[in-house]
Amino acid sequence: MIGRAGHALHWKPVANGAAHAMNPEPLPPPALPDDAIRGVLEQRVDKCGLSPGMVVGVTQGGRRSVVAHGAADPAARALDENSVFEIGSITKLFTALLLADMVHRGEAALDEPAASLLPPGTRVPERHGQPITLLQLARHTSGLPRIPPDVPPSSPEPYAGYTAERLYAFLADHRLARTPGDGFEYSNLGAGLLGHALEMVRGSGLAL
């Protein structure tokens, strides 16, 4: 959503003995009108050339709207609400939100070792006796590398054929360079492992 910067504040008096305290409650900024969003898209697509096309979806207060401008490429039809995008690493956010929801439902725990959710006998590397937890996978502090060494980074679809068996084989042989939780290292591999572990709990794929 494209909105105004900053946050509106709602002030609510709260009784506190003889006095009243004023506690600020941050509220999300209101969404821009569709015409204003369209103007932003035209600026970024036509004038700045940041993308050949963009689509913005807004859901707020029961209102839903979609504003599109441009195309996927000069030869393609114009973008609209039915256009399909490869959202890439935004799926990491969805996976982390699913983890939070499953923790809220009592289906998983943040400090739960990832190995405990995988098939029996699956080895997940540890260091100094510290296992990799679900929270560390979500925070990119597991110590796992960005990508597995057997995946060419230049491939347009590097994970399309990366099976669970290949993941297990990598984990069985890998040695962590740092103890889980000690530092940040962005890891596509770790995010994939988190999603796979949550799938094992649910007993089905993650439908996004």
Molecular structure report:
With 208 residues, the chain is α+β, with helices and mostly antiparallel strands. Helices cover 29% and strands 16% of the residues. The protein contains five helices and four strands, in the order ββαββαααα. The strands form two sheets. The chain has a two-stranded antiparallel ribbon with strand order 1-2. The chain has a two-stranded antiparallel sheet with strand order 3-4. A hairpin with a 2-residue loop joins strand 1 and strand 2 (19-27). Mean pLDDT is 85; it is low at 1-21.
Topology (elements, then pairings):
Elements: E1 8-16, E2 19-27, H1 34-47, E3 53-60, E4 63-70, H2 90-104, H3 134-139, H4 164-173, H5 188-202
Antiparallel strand pairs: 1-2, 3-4
Distance between the termini: 18 Å
Question: SS-based structural class?
Answer: alpha+beta
Q: Name the helicity range.
A: 25-40%
The biggest beta sheet reads: 2 strands, antiparallel
Stretches with pLDDT under 50, minimum 5 residues: 1-21
Please provide the count of β strands: 4
Strand order of the largest sheet: 1-2
Shape: globular
Helix count, DSSP H or I runs of 4 or more residues: 5
Radius of gyration: 22 Å
User: Average pLDDT value?
Assistant: 85
Strand portion: 15-25%
Order of helices and strands: EEHEEHHHH
